[in-house]
Write a structure and sequence with these properties.
heterotrimer; A alpha+beta (161); B alpha+beta (367); C mainly alpha (374); B: 367 residues; alpha+beta; Cytochrome-c3 Hydrogenase, chain B; C: 374 residues; mainly alpha; 66% helix
Chain lengths: 161, 367, 374
């Protein structure tokens, strides 16, 4: 036992009081939002029609099997992609498809706010995933990461960088 | 005239505010004293070992994230060590340093949660828990900068790591290294000498040295009993033999010792990260490994020191792109073997404190 | 007999100051309204203050969405609780189950009848005020035991048994602390105790009694660090596990009500009640009550919980001897100076109190360990 009963308790109470006076590190969502990392693995996939050749490496690498591709052979021995569907509700956002694609045609999204009312609405077709419409994140793509804003860190809050 | 008492059975069910995860205990009580305890688990079983037989070697890595979901980097690393042993893959220097930095930062983050939950079970109404989560935010921000996720990172690959660190990582890491020791001192001041904590945790739930070695315990549970066994020193993997750090060892094997060991391990991890951040070289971050790895037929066991203990992966390969068998040695499950012997004879409130001091994660126990 | 009773009442109430309007019934109505407004207003402000201050101490904000700065949070909670379905367990003892919240809640409000809001302004300025306070406040443990018994749930029974054991044990240090104050003030009426604190608050004269009263008071009302009766990380919710809807709201109200009452008693007896320089006396009372409650919230945030046998040993082995020694010393002082104790005794009292606490902590052993089971 400490030689004065209560010394440890008093030390603890000083710490709690100090925290009462400090400003709190809380961010009040949704009025204030933090800038996320440039490489955030967002909750959707983004697809570039121009670069995709329909090789389906991404579909083979996916551990869950959420990518569904249907192609037919067009002119010049090239594949035309008819269907490129992703079940973003079953996807675990691991990013293995982005690493596997040899043509840089698939990206992870930048957003995390994709709540929907029905499970069916989470299945994205190739029009929903077009890179012209949806923002892409810089995961595994440093050229996109350079254009995104910098992440807001807790260690720098209250200090000049 | 003697008083006749009758023991009764209480079910501390799977959904309980203080069992860490879905863990069920059927406790036989005589008044307030625990007479018998029967643990029942399996509520979080997802069949990871069976699923691993259907995925490629790279595709298993997201599954290993979800084992000990609190310390996901060390699980990934254990699995990659096992694959590298199996296929004979070498890892470049920069990747080794990055792996060490990430593992040690993950150890700090996981111990923060363990200690925070331990205090929650002792009854300190969320105050230390929330302080430790605030500290964990600083570390998890760094992980988000590198990998893009905050809990399940999927970062290590057989042959290295998946992505290089951006340029703002090292200055932010220096800032974290500057701020963390101050906050760890604050926790010490808050709770180290607290008389009520002494009364609750000193001498409570003693695990003897012989029993700990017999059941195959590892991690802070083993080191609390006085056995100096840490895989980073005994069987060094990666480049741990280049750093100098100490192994904190307890004396009595009670809950207080285990809590102290976790705090001291956090300080030692900060030392390792400081040394690694100074010595990190340039170079490639992943050696040339084909996308579908086909290791030669054989078996390998790769293990490392995770925050909860020794996590190991036993892989049997038959030459194809998926393993034939993958078995996971979960440290929390082995540590739980001693639960009944440690708790019988104490009171109900001590049961909560002793169980909290193990710091298990149900994802590991049930796989 | 009724005539004799009303004669008694009237002659007692004639002891009131002559400027009170009307007869005793007006006095009763006005003060009942004042007490109820004070009680309910304090409870709502205490709930708000606790949640905000607890939040800020834990590096987060408390509730701040409902109403400006979150002031209406308690009302939102009340509306939510009232809309819930009232489920009665099948094996419960129906009458006892139904009566338990009322028996717990009623004594809590009754204690406020003797508290003075200004000089002489209380519902009934009894000359046995302290005995009334202690007696009535121990009635609510009966309600708790009824709740635990009638729920036919092992967790509730455990919680209720612990609760009754703890409340009965902590009566002793409270009584001893209050007895020392009564000795020095010379009267048991709360108004007289406040008047006796003319030059300095009783806190300075009897620091040990304040220490005892604060700790024993926290234990008596089941606040952390002694809240193992409703420890939500151990036995889910203790004696009120099976209660929903308005009955649960009454238990919740009773818990905060006991905090209000204990803070009021401590503020009146030790900090000087309605005394103070510029502001009106009732405002001083409210400020002191909030200050004492802030101390209770502060200890709640910092300290872990004690175990039940450690709770009992703290009461009987640490606080009870301290209370006895304190009573002995105060009686010696009053014997030596029957006309009023000179002010320099404050330093002697503080020094003796600190020395006693240090000395007792050397001899205090927590005890309790592993029981050998066959």
């Amino acid at each position: 036992m400490a030689n004065i009963l209560g010394r440890g308790i008093l030390k603890g109470m000083v710490v709690t009081f100090t925290n009462l006076i400090r400003p709190s590190p809380t961010t009040q969502y949704p009025e204030q939002k933090l800038t996320v990392s440039r490489r955030i693995r967002g909750t959707e996939l983004v697809w570039s029609k121009v670069k995709c050749t329909g090789c389906a490496t991404c579909a083979r690498t996916c551990p869950q099997g959420v990518i569904h591709i249907v192609t037919h052979k067009g002119e010049n021995n090239m594949y035309n992609v008819d269907t490129f569907e992703v079940d973003s509700g079953y996807c675990i956002h691991c990013g293995l498809c982005v690493e596997a694609c040899p043509y840089d045609a698939i990206y992870l999204g930048y957003t995390y706010e994709r709540g929907k009312y029905r499970r069916k609405e989470l299945i994205m077709s190739k029009e929903d995933m077009a890179i012209e419409k949806r923002p892409a994140s810089g995961y595994y793509h440093p050229d996109i990461a350079k254009q995104l804003p910098e992440q807001e860190l807790l260690v720098y809050r209250g200090k000049k960088k | 005239m003697t008083l006749r008492t009758e023991p009764f059975v209480i079910n501390m069910g799977p959904v309980h505010p203080s069992t860490h995860g879905v863990f069920r205990m059927r406790v036989t009580l005589d008044g307030e004293v625990v007479v018998n305890l029967e643990p029942i688990f399996g509520y979080l079983h997802r069949g990871i070992e069976k699923l691993a037989e259907e995925r490629t070697y790279t595709g298993i890595i997201p599954l290993t994230d979800r084992l000990d979901y609190v310390a996901s980097m060390t699980n990934n690393l254990a699995y990659c060590l096992s694959v590298e042993k199996l296929a004979g893959i070498k890892v470049p220097e920069r990747a080794e340093y990055l792996r060490v930095i990430m593992s040690e930062l993950q150890r700090i983050a996981a111990h923060l949660i363990s200690v925070g939950s331990f205090f929650n079970d002792c009854g300190a109404y969320f105050t230390p828990f929330l302080y430790m989560f605030r500290e964990r935010e600083r570390i998890v921000d760094l992980f988000e900068m590198v990998t893009g996720q905050r809990l399940l990172y999927n970062y290590m690959r057989p042959g290295g790591v998946s992505q290089d660190i951006p340029e703002e990582f090292l200055p932010a890491l220096q800032e974290v290294l500057k701020q963390m020791p101050l906050y760890i001192d604050e926790y010490e001041r808050l709770l180290k000498d607290n008389e009520i904590l002494y009364a609750r945790a000193r001498g409570v739930g003693i695990l003897t040295k012989e029993m700990a070695i017999n059941i195959g315990a590892s991690g802070p549970v083993l080191r609390g009993c006085g056995v100096k066994w840490d895989i980073r020193k005994v069987d060094p993997y990666s480049i741990y033999d280049r750093f100098e750090f100490d192994i904190p060892v307890g004396t009595q094997g009670d809950c207080y010792d285990r809590y102290r060991i976790r705090i001291e391990e956090m300080k030692q991890s900060l030392r390792i990260v400081e040394q690694a951040a100074k010595q990190i070289p340039g170079g490639p971050i992943r050696s040339d490994v084909p996308q579908l790895i086909r290791p030669p037929a054989g078996e390998a066991y790769g293990h490392l020191e995770a925050p909860t203990g020794e996590v190991g992966f036993y892989l049997v390969s038959d030459g194809s792109i998926a393993p034939y068998r993958c078995h996971i040695r979960a440290p929390s499950l082995m540590n739980l073997t001693a639960l009944r012997d440690m708790i019988v004879g104490w009171k109900v409130q001590d049961l909560i404190v002793i169980f909290g001091s193990f710091a298990i994660t149900m994802g590991e126990v049930d796989r | 007999m009724l005539a004799g009773l009303s004669n008694n009442l009237v002659s007692h109430m004639k002891a009131l100051p002559p400027d009170w309007p009307g007869n005793i019934w007006w006095h009763w109505v006005i003060f009942t309204i004042i007490i109820l407004v004070f009680f309910l207003g304090s409870v709502i402000m205490f709930i708000y203050m606790e949640r905000r201050v607890l939040g800020k101490m834990q590096a987060r904000l408390g509730p701040n969405r409902v109403g400006p700065f979150g002031l209406l949070q308690a009302i939102a909670d009340a509306v939510k609780v009232l809309m819930k379905e009232m489920v009665t367990p099948a094996n419960a003892d129906k009458i006892v189950y139904w009566l338990a919240p009322a028996v717990t809640f009623a004594p809590v409000v009754m204690v406020l009848a003797v508290v003075p809001f200004a000089n002489g302004a209380s519902l009934a300025d009894l000359n046995i005020g302290i005995i009334y306070v202690v007696a009535i406040s121990s009635l609510s443990s009966i309600g708790v035991f009824m709740a635990g018994w009638s729920s036919s749930n092992k967790y509730s029974m455990l919680g209720a048994m612990r609760m009754v054991a703890a409340v009965v044990s902590y009566e002793m240090p409270i009584v001893l602390a209050l007895a020392s104050v009564v000795l020095i003030a010379g009267s048991m009426s709360l108004n007289d105790i406040v008047i006796a604190q003319q030059s300095y608050p009783m806190l300075l004269m009897q620091p040990l009694a304040f220490f005892l009263m604060f700790i024993a008071g926290c234990a008596e009302i089941n606040r952390s660090p002694f809240d193992l009766m409703e420890a939500d990380s151990e036995i889910v919710a203790g004696f009120h596990t099976e209660y929903t809807g308005m009955k649960f709201a009454l238990f919740y109200l009773a818990e905060y009500g006991e905090a209000v009452v204990m803070s009021t008693i401590i503020a009146t007896v030790f900090l000087g009640g309605w005394r103070g320089p510029f502001l009106p006396p009732w405002l001083w009372l409210i400020l002191k009550v909030f200050f004492v409650f802030f101390l209770m919230v502060w200890t709640r945030t910092t300290l872990p919980r004690v175990r039940i046998d450690q709770l009992m040993s703290l009461a009987w082995k640490f606080l009870f001897p301290l209370g006895l020694i304190n009573l002995l010393l105060s009686s010696l002082e009053v014997l030596a100076y029957p006309d009023g104790i000179p002010w320099y005794f404050i330093f002697a009292n503080i020094a003796v109190g600190a020395a006693l606490v240090m000395l007792m902590s050397r001899f205090y052993k927590v005890g309790g360990g592993r029981v050998a089971v066959g």
